[in-house]
Amino acid sequence: MIKNYFKTAFRSLLKNKAFTLINIIGLAIGISAAIVIYMVVQYDFSFDKFEKDGERVYRVVSAIAYQGEVSHNSGVPIPLYKAINSVTGIEQPAPFRIYSEDVRITVPAPNTSPTIFKNQEKVIICDEAYFRLFTYQWLAGSAATAFNNPNQVVLTQSRAKLYFPNLTPLQVIDKTVMYDDSLKMTVSGIVADIKENTDLTFHDFISLHTIDHFQVQPTGGDLDGGYHEDSWGSTSSYNQLFIKLKDQSSTQQIEVQLNALILRNKKDINAGETHKFVLQPLNDIHFNADYDNFGQRVANKKVLFSLLGVAAFILILGCINFVNLTTAQSAQRAREIGVRKTIGGTQQQLIGQFLTETLLLTIVAAIISAALSYYLLKLFSGFIPAGVSYAQMFTVEMLCFIVILIITVSVISGLYPAIVMSSYQPVQVLKGAGLAGAGKVGSVNLRKSLTVLQFAIAQVFILFTLLVSNQIRYLLNKDLGYKKDAILYIRTPQNSVKSNLKQVYYDKVKAMPQVEAVSIASDAPSSLNSHSTTFKYNNGKTLRETDVELKYADPNYINVYQLKLLAGRNLQQHDSTGAYIINETYRKFLGFNSPQQAIGKMVEVNDKQEPIIGVVPDFYQKPLQYALKPAALCYTAGSRHMRTLNIALKPEVPGSDNWKAAIAKMEAAWHEVYPEEEFEYRFVDESVARFYKAEQNIGKLLQWATGISVLISCMGLLGLAIFTTSQRTKEIGIRKVMGASVTQIIALLSTNFIKLIVIAFAIAAPIAWYFLHHWLQDFAYHTTINPWMFAITILATICIALLTMSLQTVKAAMANPVKSLRSE
């Protein structure tokens, strides 16, 4: 019986090649979208799921509020490392410090030159508690002894292979590794790399006792600064603290005790400031952009759930398309069904036959979708996480998902057409009544409702695409308050901050004829980096204090970025002792009615009274998701923050390569000054565009989803047009005989379809407005939802629908009425 089902199904599908091809394309697109999106979502939600008792592991983070504005910091004050032991309900604390962002690692070798690894990351300073909290397999050494002394380091297996490629883990023990040419460490242990998905991808683990040693004898690296052992007022994201709660402990109990500690020990809490500790679950680290996740990609749960919605909608469109086309085709199979029933076929057997056809068609679509998925992964490589690969398609979990998907799609797509067609009355269809016994009002209304749903989904996608594209244009073209074109920046090595090499390179670049101006600063005016501190101003009546974002810069910074002074003067060399140029937002916060009133006023910064020497217009310090904050420019010669050359180029001569030549000279000069370092540069406008990479990826995804949804919707509309015209063949013949023109017939057939599209728009418009309005609230500065977007959507949909329907309506209107009326 089953063999006959598949044999008959195969013959039927081959007989109706056009409908079969359209159905396969629609389902293949939907299934491939579902597969790729499932791979992405499953990948992101798998992070840190492997940790034993992971639901009891939390990171202690800081939420610091100034005048009600909350800033988030993934770190804690150093004294909490020891004070955490007084908090009850904690099974295991694990403090550690991130060593640096770009470490220079040297591996000495006997009788040969040392091997150097530049700009290394993922190096932390910890003790055995870290390995009691997180699961690692020890290949050599043990947590009990690997951190007993200073100057010890534990490596992951991959890192040991990189440093000592020809040695086994046991042979690497007691070997020497140098960090930043100043910290000589002895390898005391090797652990296996974590193979599961995790944000904790550290590979060098320096003994925490090393810090205690260098607090007495500072020698450089990252251990001689920024480590405030007794300061509860200093919070850095470098200082991390993870804890594992006891079984019966609650997060609320722990947070109450932690916040009691900060209130008791932090003596310099300012008026209007609150400092709270928050417990961040381990499984939240991969998704929470408020707190750092160690430089890894931050996933967005809203985006992931939206992706699932996109996949579901595209899959639903494919299923609706199948239903409409299959029922449209049913007129051609009416006699076949009548014959089958006459010779004894039951309705259950016919349903089984039609479902088998659907299953076979869905299997073919799934095979095609496997190939489509490969190209989709490449097409959206900028959007899809690097950890998602085509090889994931062949895991047991994915194969089970695909099988379930095939069965689900087959049932959803095939059940309704199977029931409808198997219910035809054999006497009526064999007498030539066609679908007279089956074309009930209910079935027609359902097909129309499905078409409305299709176009409502398509119109929502169109509206989303128009607004997201408009918002991206707004973000990229908005005036940021400074010049960002024709400016590039080059970050000098961290270990050269206190040497004169930075100045040597600065002089070489400044002397180049293609260069207009050069500034040494912390970063560009808009940056993802953040340096801030508390400013206080007392006007004799009230104390005004707030967190102010600092931009460390030399006197040329204003010229490079063309920041206009509204009052006061520019920074000067002698201002390294302390002076500030503030922005308009901070000027207004202080209560000054004009920029000139702020000049000469003294603000308290780090217990020192320092003057305001200038005021500049507001410039956006961060991506436009964030609101403008009080900001200030200051000049601190020799600061570790001031290591970036900001270079304004002269206008490029049309047809010349003067910019390219300038960059080539900069690279040559770089290798003269820093022969062992890699040369890297970026243009400021390109960096600003990268702020909105996620939005651009969403826009690209929506464009693709919109095109697919419109294509599938048009296929469904074509199916409904075929069905309707076949139902009204004799009516059309009679109208033509009575004198109706081709134009009138086309208008008659098209009017009902246009009504369906208008109804779909009435459903789609408020839904799209609601979600788009909420999406825009994620941006402090955004465009508006304009009426022209809705007008374009409805007009474009109607035009596309009319073009699609014309393939069938024109054919029906021009048909010879004699043929349609001959049976009468």
Automatic annotation (TrEMBL):
Aminoacyl-tRNA synthetase as UniProt keyword: no
Localisation per UniProt entry: Cell membrane
Any one GO cellular component localisation term in the record: plasma membrane
Topology in the lipid bilayer: Multi-pass membrane protein
Domain ABC3 transporter permease C-terminal: residue ranges: 310-426, 707-816
Start and end residues of each MacB-like periplasmic core domain: 20-260, 450-642
Annotated Pfam families: FtsX, MacB_PCD
UniProt GO MF annotations: transmembrane transporter activity
Ranges annotated as spanning the membrane: 21-41, 303-325, 358-377, 389-416, 450-468, 701-724, 745-768, 788-807
Entry keyword set: Cell membrane, Membrane, Transmembrane, Transmembrane helix
Domain of life: Bacteria
InterPro entries per UniProt: ABC3_permease_C (IPR003838), MacB_PCD (IPR025857), Macrolide_Exporter_MacB (IPR050250)
Name recorded for this polypeptide: ABC transporter permease
Source species taxonomy: Bacteria, Pseudomonadati, Bacteroidota, Sphingobacteriia, Sphingobacteriales
